[in-house]
Design a protein that fits this description.
mainly beta, five-stranded antiparallel sheet, phosphoprotein, AMP-dep_synth/lig_dom, phosphopantetheine
């Protein structure tokens, strides 16, 4: 992405969906700071089918104490858009994974 490109925010969560930006210790980030995106709410999956290890790693207790949240692996921050709304801007990944046509690719595997 060229440096002069404007980043388009992902928007605001839908009603009933909770979005948390948490630091490496899973504490909420300060306003305006980037953090890992965690998503929760009544529509959250029960986990990965047939993969208890991944379910345990990615589906965690909510910091609010209500239900669970999903660790997306994406980084983001809350920003105010030109209309004054608070929106989520996705800024990249915690790891180096890429998503190409719906398939996750780890560049280090391609480099090897």
């Amino acid at each position: 992405i060229p440096p002069d490109t404007t980043v388009v925010p992902a928007g605001a969560p839908q009603p009933g969906v909770e979005v948390h930006l948490l630091d490496a210790e899973r504490r909420p980030t300060a306003a305006g700071n980037a953090g890992e995106i965690y998503i929760g709410g009544p529509y959250l999956s029960h986990g990965y089918l047939g993969d208890a290890r991944m379910t345990e790693q990615r589906f965690l207790p909510s910091p609010t104490g209500a239900g669970r949240i999903y660790r997306t692996g994406d980084l983001g921050r809350w920003l105010r858009d030109p209309l004054g709304r608070i929106v989520l801007q996705v800024e990249g990944r915690v790891d180096r994974q890429l998503n190409l046509r719906g398939v996750r690719v780890a560049p280090e595997e391609v480099e090897a």
